[in-house]
Specification:
40% helix, alpha/beta, Rossmann fold, UDP-N-acetylmuramoyl-L-alanine:D-glutamate ligase, 17 strands
């Protein structure tokens, strides 16, 4: 599913107009679809009451159409004009002809009428401002939205539904006015906008519905940013032939682990196995291999020589290269540490001047170690996927993690282009960016995944899909989606506090099974 900026959305509307699809036609369809979602949420209740909070522009017009449909379906509906609307106003005139109650600004100078209607509403439709908002909320609009927030705080059962996006949220950047309402549901029109997946605004969105308003899909074909969906992920899964054997599904070599980090390589190897790879080998220090042998029973091992303190010796580089013959993917970094031996191993594998013949996934300490190599991307000779969290991304690009989080989309896309690698910027609404330009955003923001080791599971899943023949961009995106879907399954079962990374492992094959059976994970 495409994600479009404000300018791109305007271009799509103009292109639709050239095909004879007018703004009025789009508004009629948008209002109908918003009303349908509202009906599914609360309209079926006997005696349900809706309050449509109407702004001055097209977003308000969409809200007026939604109010008309809800009233026709038997919902007691009131349209409250938060601002004056320009004349002529076809949606408003039609609403009045249908006998729907309309409250104008002149009727409610002190907002007491608004407060009274809020107290009686089951759902408030926030149709105050849409994607065109690029300035602070004006005083009356701000006060209306603050009244909504006050009523919702007093009465949590009040459903707040935002039309296209919560009013005051910047559709491109995710910046949000202090008065931006906290929506329970956001019904976005035609295509989602980038700001819906960028903090702090993303926290205001609630459950996201994307509705078709009649813009032909082919008009958006050139858009390079996409939202991952369940149907896409189901189609990206590698085939599982009936007559297959373990060699059919590829081989992953994981190079990681150190005396202080035993869990990370276990989780990475297990993540690869749980997405269906045929064969996993862990190349790690001898002491780590001995410690994990009883737990990681489905993998094989390449024990690497160590010094007396568990540090890797120089000959480990050549041993790994020799062991890699016949493998499909190298996953480097999970739990590797940043010792002198680990640094020597990473530099020897990636920057020795010998091209790396194997597709590469770099995670965790692998990222921290390459960040110490000046202009490392000019020396890297491998087809690579990098999987940084914001802190690791900050070290790679030389900015604080907080800045990375504010600029997630642009940072990931620019880094992928500059470095010539695929970048998976982890976190809420993970971004997957390719060096050629296309990028994808995952629909998941799950606090249950905010626990150590979940990134190792993800790195293993991506490597496992690549080893099964999935191209790097698709493997990264599909791995991210499976990881997020598994997180949703875990959250449903255990809640969002207390799950650990290992809980994701049995959930990964359940997520794959669900996708194949048509289960919809969020979108």
């Amino acid at each position: 599913m495409k994600i479009v900026t404000v300018d791109q959305m305007r271009g799509l509307e103009e292109a639709a107009g050239q095909l004879g699809i007018t703004v009025e036609m789009l508004m009629d369809r948008a209002g109908l679809e918003v009303a349908r979602v509202a009906w599914d949420e609360v309209g079926r209740r006997q005696g349900a009451r809706a309050l449509a909070l109407i702004g001055p522009g097209n977003n308000g017009g969409d809200g007026l159409v939604a109010a008309r449909h809800l009233a026709f379906w038997g919902v007691e509906t009131t349209a409250y004009l938060a601002a004056e609307r320009a004349s002529p106003d076809r949606p408003l005139e039609t609403l009045r002809k249908k006998g729907v109650r309309v409250i104008t600004p002149e009727e409610d100078g002190d907002l007491s009428v608004l407060e009274r209607h809020l107290r009686g509403a089951d759902v408030v439709i926030d149709a105050v401002l849409g994607t065109g908002r690029a300035r602070p909320l004006e005083r009356r609009l701000r006060e209306c939205l603050l009244r909504v927030a006050e009523e919702r705080a007093r009465r949590p059962g009040l459903l707040v539904m935002s039309l296209d996006l919560p009013s005051g949220l910047d559709a491109n950047t995710g910046e949000a006015d202090p008065a931006t309402p906290q929506a329970d549901v956001t019904v976005t029109l035609a295509y989602p906008k980038p700001g819906l997946f960028q903090m702090p605004g993303a926290e205001k969105v609630g459950r996201l519905h994307v509705v078709d308003i009649g813009i032909p899909a082919h008009l958006a074909e050139g858009t390079a940013l996409e939202l991952l969906t369940s149907s896409w992920a189901a189609g990206a899964l590698p085939a599982r032939p009936t007559g297959a054997h373990k060699g059919t599904f590829g081989k992953v070599m994981v190079v990681g682990g150190s005396p202080n980090y035993l869990g990370a390589p276990y989780l990475a190897c297990s993540g690869a196995l749980r997405v269906g790879v045929g064969y996993v080998t862990l190349a790690t220090g001898r002491s780590v291999a001995n410690a994990l042998a009883a737990k990681l029973t489905e993998a094989t091992f390449v024990p690497l020589p160590e010094d007396g303190e568990g540090g890797l010796l120089p000959e480990a580089v050549e041993l790994v290269r020799q062991a890699l013959v016949g493998y499909d993917v190298l996953l480097l970094g999970c739990g590797l540490g940043q010792s002198e031996g680990a640094e020597r191993l990473v530099r020897g594998l990636l920057f020795s001047g010998k091209p790396l013949e194997w597709p590469l996934v770099v995670d965790a300490d692998g990222l921290n170690l390459i960040a110490q190599v000046p202009r490392w991307w000019e020396r890297l000779q491998a087809q690579a996927v990098l999987t940084p969290h914001p802190g690791e991304m900050g070290r790679l690009v030389g900015v604080p993690a907080e800045q990375v989080n504010r600029e997630r989309l642009s940072r990931a896309r620019e880094a992928a282009r500059q470095w010539g690698v695929h970048v998976v910027l982890k976190g809420a609404y993970t971004v997957i960016a390719s060096p050629e330009g296309p990028a994808r955003v995952a629909p998941f923001a799950n606090p249950a995944l905010a626990t150590p080791g979940t990134g190792d599971v993800l790195a293993g899943a991506i490597a496992g899909l690549m080893a099964q023949g999935v191209l790097p961009l698709d493997a990264a995106a599909c791995g991210v989606f499976l990881h997020g879907a598994a997180g949703e399954l875990v959250r449903r079962e255990l809640g969002d506090a207390g799950p650990i990374a290992g809980d994701l492992l049995p959930a990964l094959p359940r997520a794959i099974k669900g996708l194949k059976e048509g289960v919809k994970f969020l979108i």
